[in-house]
Write a structure and sequence with these properties.
Layout (H helix, E strand, L loop, with lengths): L1 H18 L2 H39 L4 H16 L7 H25 L3 H5 L1 H36 L3 H8 L32
């Protein structure tokens, strides 16, 4: 008799949890985690390209030490951040560091315009193409993360799911702060001179 009561209780609890949105909270929460992992993967991909890019530029433009140092230091700062996407301050710090990294890379690419031999180097052109592709992937990954967080946040605010979220301690997740919302829809501009190299 006890076993039957235990089974019935378990079924009632399962039905209650599924009916109050608990299972969907889990689905959306996992979706945000997966999307965030992809954001980190793409930013790491960009960071992995930087040493080769810096070394290639150094081979042709070693006198541009200030720019090369700025890129290396920005990469180092990014690597030191342990971001917690559930903490708005941590997420903001991560964003700021990645923005600084992007600015340092832009400066490096501007410097490369002054060195025709560097621009025509096959290795440099290949790194440019990889960087451009990575910037596109970052934009897509960020957009997917923003959408998944929005979906999760909307879900846990709806009745009666908001009650379930409150009981189990699920809170809204912070979002990337975007100064210009239209920037989400397009990747950062990375202008490359492909003269003589063709499109990759």
């Amino acid at each position: 008799m006890r076993r039957i009561l235990a089974i019935l209780s378990a079924l009632i609890v399962a039905a209650t949890l599924s009916g109050c949105g608990y299972n969907q909270i889990q689905t959306f929460d996992e979706g945000t985690k997966s999307a965030w992992s992809e954001v980190l993967n793409q930013y790491q991909r960009r960071a992995d390209l930087i040493p080769n890019l810096v070394n290639t530029v150094k081979g042709f433009a070693d006198q541009e030490r200030e720019v090369l140092t700025a890129v290396t230091e920005a990469r180092s700062r990014v690597g030191q951040i342990r971001v917690d996407p559930s903490d708005p301050n941590s997420l903001k710090q991560f964003e700021d560091a990645q923005r600084d990294m992007g600015s340092a890379l832009s400066s490096l690419l501007v410097v490369s315009e002054n060195y025709p031999q560097l621009k025509s180097d096959a290795n440099f052109r290949d790194l440019q193409a990889q960087l451009e592709g990575t910037e596109n992937r970052i934009a897509v990954a960020r957009k997917r993360y923003i959408e998944s967080v929005q979906q999760y946040n909307v879900h846990i605010r709806q009745f009666p799911t908001n009650l379930t979220a409150m009981v189990f301690g699920y809170q809204q997740k912070p979002q990337f702060s975007v100064e210009n919302e239209r920037e989400i829809a397009r990747p950062p501009a990375v202008n490359f001179d492909r003269s003589g190299g063709g499109s990759k």
